[in-house]
Amino acid sequence: MTVDAVYLLQLTLNGITLGLIYALIAVGLSLIFGVMEIINFAHGELLMLGAYAMTFALPVMGLLYWPSLAVAILAIMLVGFVIYEVLLARLKPDEFERSILITLGLSIIIIHVMQYFFTATPRMVDTQYGFEGVSIGSIRITWTRIIGALAAAAAFGGLYHVLRHTQFGRAMRAIAQNREAALMVGIRPRVVARNAVVLAAGLCGLAGAAISPIQLVTPYMGQFLIFKAFALVIIGGLGNIPGAIVAAIALGLIESWIGGFYEIIWQEAAVFVIMIAILFVRPDGLFKRGGMRVG
């Protein structure tokens, strides 16, 4: 194996781990859109709160990764529950513009509250693993990246099981596919929407907690990621969960490859150039849109 091939494989592994974390955010957006037909522009701030929750949980848990991860996820699920009950429960399916204004306003409030209390100074997160990792020849990947990727993959497996094989998941898919028919058989949209928001918040909490040992934690980190996630949802097909996952992993790979061979500024432009190109060719995205498709 040549040095160039080793370097490319290293970039590929890094890209897959990053793509799986992107997928957690994009899938959460797809869940909320599928059930409520709104785009939650405060979704990135849930990721940011998950990262901060990890920074506070780790010292309490003695830098132990797994208990801190669980605390962060549960904390953001609780935040998602509060956001739904206080704000989103009052939205109707045809109030798309109102939902944009409310969630954008919430996003700005959360950012500035966090900046007021914790300043804009970036925080570095350390875990029990530090910078340790697995080395195979010249290829090295840290444990935090490996565990983050495995946790994301496990979350997608659990989500697939929930949506396909539980009453909880079937109710969400029924609302997404045909709201009127779901109402006729006694499904309560408010309960289903609340469950979807809490589940999406949990995925965001996992994403924030997983990314916190990899990237610097700041109040604005969610802003940089939410627009990418929104683009991924469009590329994958609005409401199509497998499409969002495939698009996210592809973006992680593309960003890693571009960052490895070209100036890093091109990483940020890549997803939007791809989105525009795809929408010219396939206006509904790469995969079939709507209905909260899971396969």
Overview of the molecule:
This protein is an all-alpha fold and 295 residues long. The chain has one domain (3-220). It is built from 11 helices and 2 strands, in the order H-H-H-H-E-E-H-H-H-H-H-H-H. The chain has helices at 3-36, 43-60, 65-86, 96-118, 143-165, 167-177, 179-184, 189-211, 221-236, 241-261, 265-281, and strands at residues 133-136, 139-142. A two-stranded antiparallel sheet has the order 1-2. The longest helix has 34 residues, at 3-36. The relative contact order is 0.21.
Compact description:
By secondary structure, the protein is an all-alpha fold. It has helices spanning 3-36, 43-60, 65-86, 96-118, 143-165, 167-177, 179-184, 189-211, 221-236, 241-261, 265-281, and strands at residues 133-136, 139-142. It has one domain.
Number of helices: 11
* Gap between N and C termini: 37 Å
What would the principal axes of the Cα set say about the shape?
globular
- Low-pLDDT windows of residues: none
The percent of residues in helical segments reads over 70%
Structural category is mainly alpha
Outline the biggest β-sheet.
Answer: 2 strands, antiparallel
Average of pLDDT: 84
- Rg over alpha carbons: 19 Å
Give, in order, the helices and strands: HHHHEEHHHHHHH
Number of strands: 2
Strand order, main sheet: write it out.
Answer: 1-2
Number of domains: 1
Question: Hey, roughly how much beta strand do the residues contain?
Answer: under 5%
